[in-house]
Design a protein that fits this description.
Elements (H helix, E strand, L loop, with lengths): L16 E2 L8 E16 L3 H13 L4 H24 L4 E12 L3 E15 L1
Parallel strand pairs: 1-3
Antiparallel strand pairs: 2-4, 3-4
Protein name: UPF0145 protein ABT404_12140
Family: Belongs to the UPF0145 family.
Organism: Streptomyces hyaluromycini
Length: about 120
């Protein structure tokens, strides 16, 4: 069952629904497959670190760092969906992100949730 049955979705990941909730109205969990995650660590390049340092003195959005974090979160989510798909899931429930600094080397982003198989009620 693809996500199009849920009323939306496009692109290469449209076959796996990802939600932050513990259930999906109109569907029941047939099988809980288990935890899935996508992990990535990104370092900041010297130019963005210098720019961020200067910007933090005068205030405002750190656009370079924002762009990097968005790309990092997207990559972690793509890896989560790949893992869920490989395990036979058609949905991930209770989806969350965890972000930490990785030993002064960069930012670690982990996307995680519970892979399940949903059936229409």
């Amino acid at each position: 069952m693809g996500i199009e049955e849920y009323g939306g979705g496009q692109g290469p990941q449209a076959d796996v629904l990802v939600v932050t909730t513990n259930d999906v109205p109109g569907y029941r969990v047939r099988e809980v497959i288990g935890e899935v995650f996508g992990l990535t660590v990104r370092s900041r390049h010297l130019g963005s670190q210098i720019g961020a340092g200067l910007k933090s003195m005068i205030g405002g959005e750190l656009k370079g760092l924002t762009k990097t974090l968005v790309q990092t979160r997207n990559q972690a989510m793509e890896r989560l969906i790949e893992q869920a798909r490989a395990r036979g899931a058609n949905a991930v429930l209770a989806f969350r992100f965890d972000v930490t600094e990785a030993a002064d080397a960069g930012t670690e982003v982990c996307a995680y949730g519970t892979a399940v198989i949903l059936d229409k009620e």
